Amino acid sequence: MTSAAAAGSPVHGLLATAGIVLSLVLAGWALVATLRHRAPDRIQFAGLALLELALLGLAVVALVALGGGERPGEPGAFFGYLVTLVCLPPLAWVLARMEPTRWGSAIVCAICLVTPVVVVRLQQTWEVVGG
Amino acid sequence: MAEPQATNRGPGRLLIAIYILFAIAATSRAGLQIATKFDRAPVAYLLSAVAALIYIVAAVGLARAGHAGRRTALLCCSIELVGVLGVGVLSLADRQLFPDETVWSQFGSGYGYVPLVLPVLGLLWLWRTRTTAT
Question: Is the ipTM of this complex over 0.95?
Fold first, then answer.
């Protein structure tokens, strides 16, 4: 009953994996910057932009699948997570721009640690077959 | 090292970021629970909503800084600490009371215990920046 669920899910696959890996790498990079008392650098902002592109791609794929008649297991939670997810990198960007100190890097690190959790929760809310 | 610190600068901004994340998490969770299955656990879901509100107000209080902002943040962090400890104990003692998860159930274990640590960090930060308030 769950065998085909993951295979047919639009939020599993290359984009989701790329988003998770990129987010974790960026979190690691930002953590090093924090420990070295460095403000968010270009790499962090470029990484956030790239992460946002991957997440927007994921959202588009999910919306296309919805247009094609597929439905997530928990629609309400799914859309909640999807909207939250695409807002996270911009939030990190804005706050990091406001805080050009090591704490800006710490903010990027924190939000990049949360992002993979939201991706995984997004996948879980798609999988749950109603009932 | 000894530069003057405002409540909404430096580590404070990181704290605000985490409060924003929890405000989003708690608000969407409570909104969804109340909208779709309120009858199942009204106490738990209303509590989620209260927690959400406190996270929002605390974030705003920290961000506004100043005397009123700090007072607001102090009040919110205190309620939050009492809330997470109280609900944590109650949820372990009587599972019937909270049949569904809230942010504060089991001391916030569903959120990596961050809900337990966050108010403590908030209070410590308010304490460390106390002289700059007046």
Answer: no
